[in-house]
Design a protein that fits this description.
about 160 residues; mainly alpha; 3-stranded parallel beta sheet; two-stranded parallel ribbon; globular
């Protein structure tokens, strides 16, 4: 997606921080030469990337969804269709149904990405609404809460 949309993103004055994974880095690192693109195999300081972002495009694994709820930025989920029981679509839909994100299925990207992304990019109201709604779904103390429940069960 990112590779095919770089010209569109540049034309819309969008700077891209692209974490492509180490398997794809050698293929996509050539785009790092573009002034508006930074290509990374992996980001060790994801918090800084999130802080720099105005809009986030992400897969919809459970950890990513959880992080993005806490981050509270406008998010476009593109669930991977290559996962067990299509769980990423289910994860994304849990947020989309609460009006906390946009979801575009991978097989719809070519047809709808630019129109949906442009709508989000050009609407501060929609960005604010998505941010507010996704943030309300955050479970900031989930690890502590789970550990506390496990300790209570162990004491019984």
């Amino acid at each position: 997606l990112i590779e095919s949309e770089l010209e569109y993103l540049d034309a819309n004055n969008v700077q891209v921080i692209w974490q492509c994974g180490k398997l794809y880095y050698n293929t996509y690192k050539v785009y790092d030469e573009n002034e508006h693109v930074q290509v990374h195999a992996f980001l060790n300081k994801m918090d800084l990337a999130y802080a720099a972002a105005d809009i986030i495009i992400s897969r919809a694994g459970a950890s990513s969804v959880s992080e993005l709820c806490i981050v509270g930025k406008p998010t476009v989920f593109i669930p991977s269709p290559n996962v067990a029981e299509d769980h990423q679509t289910k994860n994304a839909m849990a947020i989309v149904e609460k009006r906390g994100a946009i979801m575009i299925k991978e097989n719809d990207l070519e047809e709808t990405f630019e129109s949906q992304f442009s709508e989000l990019l050009n609407s501060e109201e929609k960005q604010h609404s998505l941010s507010k709604n996704i943030k309300e779904l955050a479970l900031e103390n989930a690890t502590r809460d789970i550990a506390n429940q496990v300790e209570k069960l162990l004491k019984k």
